[in-house]
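pinning this so it doesn't scroll away 📌
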Amino acid sequence: MGLFSSCLRVNEYPNEPTIANAKLQLEGDSAYFYVDFIDGDGNVGLGQDDTTGSFADCKTKYNLFCEYQEKINGVWYTLSGDPCLDPNAVPFYYRVPWATPPGQNKTQKGTIKVLMYPAYYLPGEHDTCRFVVTLCDRDIHYSNTIISNEFIKP
């Protein structure tokens, strides 16, 4: 009689988040933004109380950064302001909530869905748009930067 044992292979991912497939989807008068992500140590997301210490700074109180761009004469220009520099800017910075992975494998893998705010206001007068996207985890590790799909403003 023989004894066999096996283990499920656990995929290992870097501790820095990785993002892919950013897209904006228009639904009536609202817009939703989707981005796929993987984080090896499972610390993407901010809790309600993550507002002091490392998270008190303007740049780290958010963890999903979507820089709004419009195409003007074939060249992309960033039109969304940085709320850390200009309090009147229309930022597309968000706080993705913390979701703790169950079990021993703390890898997070999923899709973030954000209702675009403020009220789906897209500044600028040109119609072809996109977002440049970055995600940050609680260890202040920034992801790769990706570009969303191009879309035409309604």
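📌 and the second one:
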Amino acid sequence: MTLEIKTIGFSMRMLGKNMGTINCYLLKSEAGYLLIDTSFPNQHAALVSELEAGGCRPGNLKLIVITHADLDHVGNAASLRREFGAQIAVHQEEVSAVAGGSMTNRKEQPPFQRAVTQVVLKLIVSMTNFGDFEKFTPDLTLNDGYDLSAYGFDAKVIHLPGHSKGSIGVMTADGDLICGDLLWNMRKPGSHSIVDDQAEFQASLKKLESLNIRTVYPGHGEPFTMQQLQNSRKSSRSAGSN
């Protein structure tokens, strides 16, 4: 069964500058709704309004899937679970981050790197109104290939590490990939600029070649096709060789 995908995008501003969009995705099936990512905490009211406008209300939101534990993706997960009664699912490698209430609590980060990152993030939060990270324990942990049909959605989880060790995407049976922060489309389709592990990141990009992807729905920016991504890469390589 074809899943309806609704993009819920929010403008991200930092120090008065527009930093692009943050996307959440609402999937609809006969069974109900599935929400992928939840934006910053300060977007809570707007996100709830968008969910309700799409027909999603307490009782029919079956699952909240978090692609990775960065604040702009996980910010409203805990509050939405309380209000909508939905379960929260994350990759097992992101559990320490969400349970610790900080995206710097990923267990793969060395203590010094974690401490430096925490200081930087606190500085950023102090200069913005993004809101605080509310820690939580997920109801469900996900692995590569996890079948979401048990919740009524013809889709599966794709493990796409690199941006973080537990980054995931959701691939529908129709070939639509919601990819988190593996790829984005800020000015043009391409790889995300923040990478925790370059080798894993490149392996995840290579993994996409084995998937029959129709449309990519990124965590930031407009959806695009794989052909558009390939054209963008060719354009970048040509510009770099000149």
